[in-house]
Amino acid sequence: MAQALAQRTVWHLNSTARGGGVADLLEKAIGLHNESGLRARWLVLAGDAEFFAVTKRLHHRLHGSPDPVGPLGAAERETYETTTSRQAREVLERVAPGDLCVLHDPQTLGLAPHLVAAGLDVAWRCHIGTGAHSAVVRDTWTFLEPYLRAPARCVFSAERYAPPGLLRQQGKVVVLRPSIDPAARKNRPMTPAAVHDRLRAIGLQAGPGRPAAAGTARIVQDRPLPEDAPLVLQVSRWDPLKDMAGVLRGFAGHVAPVRDDVHLVLAGPDPDDIPDDPEGARILHELRGAWEALDGPVRSRVHLVSLSLLDADANADSVNALQRRADVVVQKSLREGFGLTVTEAMWKGKAIVASAVGGITDQIRDGYEGTLVRDPHDLPAFGRALLRLLAESDLRERYGTAAHRRCTKEFLIYREFMDYCSLYTGLLQETPAATHS
Predict the structure, then answer these.
(1) What is the 3-state secondary structure (H, E, C) of 56-83?
(2) CATH number attached to the domain at 185-410
(3) Around Cβ 418, how many Cβ atoms within 10 Å?
(4) Which end of the chain is more exposed for a tag (fewer CB within 10 A), N or C?
(5) Distance between CA atoms of residues 138 and 130, nearest Å
(6) Domain 2-179+413-436 indexed as CATH 3.40.50.2000
């Protein structure tokens, strides 16, 4: 592959350098590309609040969520095209004809026609989606259709996420499932003492240990997490589709009344550190209001953790420690293209309760690697699944062992890198090297 690419550079473009799964994927993937002899670079594109408001609507719509703002029209298209046209001009100052560009998610798709016209080989990778092609999903693909014509390949986490029109074009759709890097700081082994020290450092857990670095985390809690308390954890962005509020209600209404020793931690990145997500601060604010409204005994067992992204190592250590400390990891998403936090928990051998939505059903088989709740709005069923796993340590161990085995086989970065190489091969076959002389 390195010989085939010769003097070409592979460029990956997305809209944020930190926070969320795509940034995590790219940080490790770009390093692995270069270590393997492929010259790869990563560009992060800038946009204003109006642009990101439009692209956030596209994000929710492609998951099948209703759009309270209304239809996508001329105003949204003007906002989208004005920003992506400017971004394309900036990208073209850095790239060369014949280079390969992989655009990530709807924020970048509008660049594709400009880059292809300039002589680049372009693929678009969509990390989100749903297999239910409702009216709102169809309308969103119609809005994006003028830009979908340009990429030689459109890449999805599952074939069912692709719009039917693309599937009818032979070779246009590629399936490439996301992965994690087992050597990443977030996934490295941690001793119980190191886990305790990290949770003490961010202020979640009491006891001896080093004090927290300023700005590392913001904790909302009545009192620290007891060292020996059973722990349920969800780590996600503060996004309505991750349904942190639903996790809180399910815990308060169906777990806390039965078990008075179990604690819940809801953790996510500091919204101030994620410029392309305008909803995060509002969701976290609403969640804090729901936490304040809980009865005192229940509220004392719920902890909200907002982790700074400004220190990447500290953030990775904190997420790692939280996941390793948890007895059960939850991902109660309403929609989910592919759950990287699920994969991280699988790698760490954790028992998982998750919604049977989107890509999660490709990661976990119900009753083998974890428990899937058929309806994410069914809070009693969610509570029952948690209580069963909390009560049965043998079942937690069996699920965790099976999850780690499946993750090792299917969801590590080495497999994804080979899939990228296949993608690049397909792009090169579309435009032979002679056309770039």
Answers:
(1) HHHHHHHCCCCCCCCCCCHHHHHHHHHH
(2) 3.40.50.2000
(3) 11
(4) C
(5) 11
(6) yes
Domain ranges within the chain, ordered by starting residue: 2-179+413-436, 185-410
Supply the pTM of this predicted model.
0.84
In this structure, are residues 327 and 352 in contact, taking their beta carbons and an 8 Å threshold? no
Q: Is the dihedral of CA 52, 58, 62, 63 positive or negative?
A: positive
| Bridging pattern class, strands 121-126 and 100-104 | parallel
pLDDT tens, residue order, the chain (437 aa): 888 888 899 999 999 888 778 888 899 899 999 999 999 999 999 999 999 999 999 999 999 999 999 999 999 999 999 999 999 999 999 999 899 999 999 999 999 999 999 999 999 999 998 888 899 999 999 999 999 999 999 999 999 999 999 999 999 999 999 999 999 999 999 999 999 999 999 999 987 655 555 568 999 999 999 999 999 999 999 999 999 999 999 999 999 999 999 999 999 999 988 877 778 999 999 999 999 999 999 999 999 999 999 998 999 999 999 999 999 999 999 989 888 999 999 999 999 999 999 899 999 999 999 999 999 999 999 999 999 999 999 999 999 999 999 999 999 999 999 999 999 999 998 765 434 33
Q: What is the CA radius of gyration of the chain?
A: 22
On whether the CB atoms of residues 277 and 239 are closer than 8 A, the answer is: yes
Secondary structure class of 126 (helix, strand, coil)? strand
Is there a common fold for 2-179+413-436 and 185-410? yes
Name the E strands within 211-318: 217-220, 231-235, 263-269, 302-307
Phi, psi dihedral angles at 339 (to 5 degrees): -95, 95
Q: Compute the distance between CA of residue 69 and CA of residue 72 in angstroms, rounded to an integer.
A: 9
d(CA 107, CA 51): 9
CB 255 within 8 A of CB 302: no
Amino acid at 373: V
Measured CA to CA, the distance from residue 116 to residue 93 in angstroms comes to: 14
DSSP run (H or E) holding 289? helix 280-292
Q: How far is CA 242 from the centre of its chain?
A: 10
Pairing verdict, β 173-175 and 263-269: unpaired
Other CB atoms closer than 10 Å to residue 260's CB: what's the count?
Answer: 9
